[in-house]
Amino acid sequence: MRRWAIALLGVVACAPAWAQMSPVGTWESFDDKTGAPKAQIVIAEAGGVLTGHVERLLRPGADPKELCTRCTDDRKDQPMVGLEIIRGAKKVEGKDMWEDGRILDPESGTTYALRLTPVDGGQKLDVRGSIGPFGRTQTWTRIK
Q: Which domain holds residue 59?
């Protein structure tokens, strides 16, 4: 009985770490050039598919009413705050990685193939956007 209780305690103690190895949550993105906080992004899951939207702009002097004027799809001229920038990512079987989705760079209006990989125990998220073999990876920091 005692061994069972110790095992159960170990499982309960590890549960928060397991839950964090997912992109679901609130993240802070950073400017590639300056390293300054850029936006707060919320990633959610519905039916095994991830979506993500801009919750708040963090750049100094950012206008919360700013529109995505460079977007070319249904997001054209939509407010940046609330803008869905991640669509369709799905978990890769057997890995802590999500792919097959798209990510939008609202500053350029370009969408990229997407790969999300939680790192550092789920406290950071490697966000890779690519077109063919070319791409770049940003590391976002978990807020919640």
A: 21-142
* Helix H or strand E encompassing 3: helix 2-20
Distance of alpha carbon 28 from alpha carbon 143, whole angstroms:
7
pLDDT digits (tens, 9 = 90+) for 55-114: 999 988 889 899 999 999 999 999 999 999 999 999 999 999 999 999 999 999 999 999
What confidence score (pLDDT) does residue 64 get?
A: 84
- pTM here is 0.84
**How far lies 89's CA from each of 25, 45, 64, 77, 97, in Å?**
14, 9, 27, 24, 9
- 1 in any annotated domain: no
Number of domains in the chain: 1
CATH code at position 134 = 2.40.128.520
